[in-house]
UniProtKB/TrEMBL annotation:
Pfam hit, one: adh_short_C2
Species assigned in the record: Stagnimonas aquatica
GO molecular function, one term: oxidoreductase activity
Taxonomic superkingdom: Bacteria
Membrane-spanning residues: none
Keywords: Oxidoreductase
Protein name, UniProt field: SDR family oxidoreductase
Length: 254
């Protein structure tokens, strides 16, 4: 790797596995120090150990993204232990799948609290540090689920992910003049969530993957993580406020 992010400090939620872990690895490969958060400390420590083996610095911070105090603490710890904050990646999300009549209010609330509300809180907590950086980047994760022709069973999930896209656009418009770029990716990746969906709904998952022009699901680090890392570099300094599908061409955003 080219170490284009050497000296940068990143905070990645959901960094213990899947897409968040892949993004953390890719940022570290470009030279960034990376704090990873999640609910299971052992998974985070595994991510940090691998970051260390790759020659970068990592920090594992247990966190419940639905808890405002926990979010405040991880931002403070990241800044205190790593020396600042240049990159925020909001990846953690509880997925509220189910029909409108079948989904519980608790599941929908958990999707809201772990998704757009946590994203809103973390962006505001990170804001003064990203502003101080002068070269701040926020990457939020949404989904192409809202572009399904058949939304049955995906309404609540699409709703929370679309809320994240709108928060992304607002931050991009409000904070760009202060040196903060904000973008959103809509990834398709071979994550544990994808594996769980494929196991629970094998026919639906197979039919979906068949619609990907590149005929494969993306790798968490090589395809998704490396794209995010590139988006945070000076090579993409004029990219702001965009929702970008990183999915082999499956979704058409219009």
């Amino acid at each position: 790797m080219t170490q284009r992010l050497k000296g940068k400090i990143a905070l990645v939620t959901g960094g213990g596995q899947g897409v968040g872990q892949g993004i953390a690895y890719a940022l570290a490969a470009e030279g960034a120090a990376v704090a990873v958060t999640g609910r299971t400390l052992a998974k985070l420590e595994g991510t940090v150990a691998e970051i260390g083996r790759r020659g970068s610095r990592g920090l594992a911070l247990a966190c419940d993204v639905k808890d405002a105090g926990s979010l405040e603490q991880v931002v403070a710890e990241t800044v205190a232990q790593l020396g600042g904050l240049d990159i925020l990646v909001n990846c953690a999300q509880e997925v509220p799948l189910g029909t409108l009549n079948g989904l519980s209010e608790a599941a929908f609330a958990a999707g809201w609290e772990s998704g757009p509300l946590a994203t809103f809180r973390l962006m505001r907590l990170a804001y003064p540090h990203l502003k101080k950086s002068g070269d701040g980047n926020i990457i939020n994760l949404a989904s192409s689920a809202a572009y399904r022709w058949d939304a049955a069973g995906y309404g609540a999930y699409s709703a929370v992910k679309e809320a994240i896209r709108q928060l992304t656009r607002a931050a991009a418009c409000e904070w760009a003049k202060e040196g903060i770029r904000t973008n959103c990716i809509l990834p398709l990746a071979d994550s544990p969530a994808m594996a769980g969906w494929s196991a629970a709904r094998p026919e639906e998952a197979a039919a979906f993957v068949a619609t990907v022009p590149q005929q494969r699901v993306g790798a968490c680090e090589a395809d998704i993580g490396r794209f995010v890392a590139n988006l945070c570099t000076a090579d993409c300094r004029y990219i702001n406020g965009q929702s970008i599908a990183v999915d082999g061409g499956q979704a058409y955003l219009g």
